[in-house]
Specification:
globular, 2 strands, alpha+beta
Length: 110
């Protein structure tokens, strides 16, 4: 007998946000997504964490601060479900490690 590896997968992508989006607008989009995730009764959250949203990233175009990543982590952790983080971007190399730690700290993983 074969069992499917993943069942009941749902995705929730953020709306396209304009260049220059900062913490406040980004957190509003995160809150909207988390409301949808909670309403759907999801049992696990997979975060595709792209840190190219950091202010000054040469490829991103957003202006998020390090503190925003901590707030994102805290808000996701409030769902009370298992969370998997996949790191997939961030090209301000000098700040990348600190930004990852900020997210993980918010999740309660540090």
């Amino acid at each position: 007998t074969r069992y499917p590896l993943v069942t009941g997968v749902q995705t929730c992508a953020l709306p396209i946000l304009p260049f220059g989006t900062g913490d406040h607008e980004y957190l509003q989009a995160i809150d909207h997504a988390l409301q949808r995730i909670q309403a759907a009764g999801c049992q696990t959250l997979v975060i595709s964490a792209g840190f190219d949203t950091y202010d000054g990233d040469p490829l991103g175009g957003f202006t998020l601060t390090r503190g925003c990543y901590t707030l994102i982590g805290q808000r996701c952790a409030q769902l009370g479900i298992p969370i998997v983080v996949i790191q997939e971007g961030g090209y301000t190399v000098a700040a990348l490690g600190d930004n990852v730690v900020a997210l993980l700290d918010g999740l309660g993983a540090v």
